[in-house]
Specification:
The protein is an alpha+beta fold. It is 46% helix and 18% strand. The longest helix is centred in the first third of the chain and has 30 residues.
Amino acid sequence: MAQFSGFPEAALDFYDDLEMDNTKTFWETHKHVWAESVSAPMKALTAALAAEFGEAKIFRPYRDVRFAKDKTPYKNHQGAFVATGPSTGYYVQVGAPGVRVGAGFYDASTARLASIREAIVDQRRGQELEDLLATLRAAGWEVGGDRLKTSPRGYDADHPRIELLRHKSLTAGRSYGFEHFVHTAELLDHVRADWRAATPLIEWFQAYART
C-alpha cells in the first residue's frame, strides 16, 4: 500500500461537486476521482494508524435510502471508524468542509446507557468524565451527541451532572477544515496526536460502560 501523503485538493473538490449533483451519472463519471483522491488516501491513513489504534472500518460511500426521505444515493463525506467497543471508538472523515476527527460513543443499548449514567452519577467517576471533557474542550474539541430534552427517567433534574445524564450518545470532535496540512503527510501526525488526546475518554467508556 502506498504511503499516506494527505488528501489532495481533488478530494474536497469532488465532494463540493457531489453536493451539487448527487446522482448516479455524476458518480459513475467521477468515480475514479473518489478512488484515487478519497478512498486510496483513507486506506493509507487508517493503515498507518492501525498498529496503535486498531483496524478501521472504512464506510461505504453509498447511502441507505430505503427508509429515508432524502433519496440522494451517495454520502457527502468519506468516514472511517476504529471500534474499541460497541458503537465506541475513534473516527476520521473527509468531505467538502475538509477533514474532521472524533471519538466517543454514537449509540448504546438500554443496558449500556444505564451503566454509563450510573458512572456519571457516581461522584468520582462522574467528576473524572467532566474533567476529561473539560481538557478536550480547552484543547479546541467540541463535545456533542444526541441528548434528551428532559431529564432521563429516574434522575433528578437538579443533579449537578444532569447535562451529561441527558446524553444518549456522547462524542468529542474537532475540525481541521482546509488547513494546509490536510493535503500533506503531516495530517497523519495530527490525527494520531488527537486520537491519543481522546484516548482517556475512550478508556473511560471501556472501564465503565458495560456491554
